[in-house]
Amino acid sequence: MDLDARERALVDLGRALEAERYEFVTVTPETHARVRARDHRLGASLRDVFGWSRAFARDAMAPHLFELLRRAGAVVESRGLYRSTVRVSSLGGRLFMHSSHPTTDPSAVFFGPDTYRFCAAIGRAGLRARRAIDVGCGTGAGGLVAIAERVVLGDVNDEALAFARVNAALAGATHAEVVRSDVLSGVDGEMDLVLANPPYLHDELGRTYRDGGGELGEALSLRIVAEAAERLGAGGTLLLYTGSAIVDGDDVFRRKATLLLERAGMSFTYDELDPDVFGEELSRPAYARVDRIAAVLLRAHKG
């Protein structure tokens, strides 16, 4: 896999952090903000700098790590203090690089509790594939934990594609290919497994990693269902982790996805993995009629 100078520096930084036995479990933005608000100290550890995204003084970091940050163009300075623009999370014994907190930029690449649940669901499913596609791959975590002879990591976000290349290199995933693809439109050939953890919220800022489109964030998830139903070969599987707004007891995504899958003649299972996520979103005008947002897993099979 070809990497540019920035990406090579990020890979070297990741390997240096591995050598330091760095670990950090990334929390929701709401939890992150609460932890940061109760303690405004400067970063004094690798977890402070690369996990909690704290500002730090130059002498708080080993010179070789700071040089790697500088080479990657991933450090900014303000009033004599520095901040890393990349964040590093651990999952399953691997490190994954993504955007630092706060993820307010439209092209930010997110990693958090949804990523952990998605990857856990892939592991529990026990699926083996000849060629898997991770749609809207972001960091590439889903595709990289899947058991597949070949995996395609696809996204429309240039920053996500860069992080996916870095994370694939860190994982030693020589079977991975990173491609620009709007859902499945940029992927040619046969596939027997489609994985997806798409954005599923209604986001007023239109951030790529967060806004799922449609009235309540369901549009992109439904598009993935429709394209997977058309493109999967016989015996193929779609594993989709997403969120669904529940309106007066009605699971909006499930109702619409069921119609698509029944028309395609696909069998499926559907499970709520968490009945209540991103509860703070309910105070936004778009969610005025919503009871709750559920994290759900759809597994559909093409016979």
Q: Can you describe what's shown?
A:
The chain has 2 domains: 5-99, no CATH class; 113-301, Vaccinia Virus protein VP39 (Rossmann fold, 3-Layer(aba) Sandwich). Helices cover 32% and strands 25% of the residues. The protein has 9 helices and 12 strands. Strands 5, 6, 7, 8, 9, 10, 11 and 12 form an 8-stranded mixed sheet that branches. α1 (5-19) packs across α7 (158-171).
Topology, pairings included?
Layout: H1 5-19, H2 29-37, H3 46-50, H4 63-71, E1 75-78, E2 81-84, E3 86-91, E4 94-99, H5 113-125, E5 128-135, H6 141-145, E6 147-155, H7 158-171, E7 176-180, E8 193-196, H8 219-231, E9 237-247, E10 250-251, H9 252-264, E11 267-274, E12 292-301
Parallel strand pairs: 5-6, 5-8, 6-7, 8-9
Antiparallel strand pairs: 1-2, 3-4, 9-10, 9-12, 11-12
Helix pairs in contact: 1-4, 1-7, 8-9
What keywords describe this structure?
8-stranded mixed sheet, globular, 9 helices, Rossmann fold, 303 residues, alpha/beta, single chain
Strand content: 25-35%
CATH homologous superfamily title of the largest domain: Vaccinia Virus protein VP39
Shape designation: globular
Give, in order, the helices and strands.
Answer: HHHHEEEEHEHEHEEHEEHEE
The count of helical stretches stands at 9
Distance between the termini: 34 Å
Mean pLDDT equals 96
Helix content: 25-40%
Largest sheet: 8 strands, mixed
Low-confidence stretches: none
What value does the Rg take, in angstroms? 19 Å
Return the structural class: alpha/beta
Give the number of domains: 2
CATH fold type of the largest domain: Rossmann fold
Any guess at the CATH architecture of the largest domain? 3-Layer(aba) Sandwich
Total beta strand runs: 12
Regarding CATH, which class of the largest domain?
Alpha Beta
